[in-house]
Specification:
The complex is a heterodimer of chains A (114) and B (115).
Chain A lengths: L3 E2 L4 E5 L4 E7 L6 E7 L6 E7 L4 E4 L2 E6 L4 E6 L8 E11 L2 E6 L3 E6 L1
Parallel strand pairs in A: 2-11
Antiparallel strand pairs in A: 1-3, 3-8, 4-5, 4-9, 6-7, 7-8, 9-10, 9-11
Chain B lengths: L3 E4 L2 E4 L5 E7 L6 E6 L5 E7 L6 E2 L7 E3 L7 E4 L8 E12 L2 E6 L3 E5 L1
Parallel strand pairs in B: 2-11
Antiparallel strand pairs in B: 1-3, 3-8, 4-5, 4-9, 5-6, 7-8, 9-10, 9-11
Classes of the chains: A mainly beta (114), B mainly beta (115).
Chain lengths: 114, 115
């Protein structure tokens, strides 16, 4: 049973336009949601996160929106740049066994065309 | 990926062989994690360690063992490798706090192929 779902395997946008990546989750116990970015042959890097008590968080060109009633979050990148081309993973966090554990979605490959 | 190192970067094994993947951190953080990433599957947690000397199972622990002998190092062992364990393995540590959550820092990964 997949607790975190990214239903779009890929997304292609033009440079300068908005990129919107979506994520759905099923477990109401998740307390934080995170986005990671991954380039080929590298480890994922943390991008931005949001607490379950908030509905929006911004960091420069990146904004994450959370709709708790719909169990849905999205990452907006404005404006998109070619260097943003990567795989984006949505992750949900819950504290268990003395550590914060992450459950990842399958990822969305974003391509930003010049 | 500064602060988390993994060795080796690549490895090819035959079915039944054993090997240990090494992970080391220089950030003095408590929690460490091992994930595997398969095509189209995202990252799945194999084992984690909340502190030195403690380990616990994640989502996909079968076929693996781990060891956390000190705060700095967390190793993952395959006792008898199987083709289903062909994957990219990432080590992560629980890092600094941003946006009220402990982000995890990931190492560069080990690409393992089991023939």
């Amino acid at each position: 049973d997949q607790q975190v779902k990214q239903n779009s395997p890929s997304l292609s946008v033009q440079e300068g336009r908005i990129s919107i990546l979506n994520c759905d989750y099923t477990n109401s116990m998740f307390d934080y949601f995170l986005w990671y970015k991954k380039y080929p042959a590298e480890g994922p890097t943390f991008l931005i996160s949001i607490s379950s008590i908030k509905d929006k968080n911004e960091d420069g060109r990146f904004t994450v929106f959370l709709n708790k009633s719909a169990k849905h979050l999205s990452l907006h990148i404005v404006p998109s740049q070619p260097g943003d081309s990567a795989v984006y993973f949505c992750a949900a966090s819950h504290f268990q066994g003395g550590s914060e554990k992450l459950v990842f979605g399958k990822g969305t490959k974003l391509t930003v065309n010049p | 990926n500064a602060g988390v190192t993994q060795t080796p970067k690549f490895q090819v094994l035959k079915t039944g062989q054993s090997m240990t993947l090494q992970c080391a951190q220089d950030m003095n953080h408590n929690s460490m994690y091992w994930y595997r990433q398969d095509p189209g599957m995202g990252l799945r947690l194999i084992y984690y360690s909340a502190s030195e000397g403690t380990t616990d199972k994640g989502e996909v622990p079968n076929g693996y063992n781990v060891s956390r002998l000190n705060k700095r190092e967390f190793s993952l062992r395959l006792e008898s490798a199987a083709p289903s364990q062909t994957s990219v393995y990432f080590c992560a540590i629980e890092g600094g706090r941003r946006f009220l959550v402990n982000e995890q820092f990931f190492g560069p990964g080990t690409r393992l192929t089991v023939l």
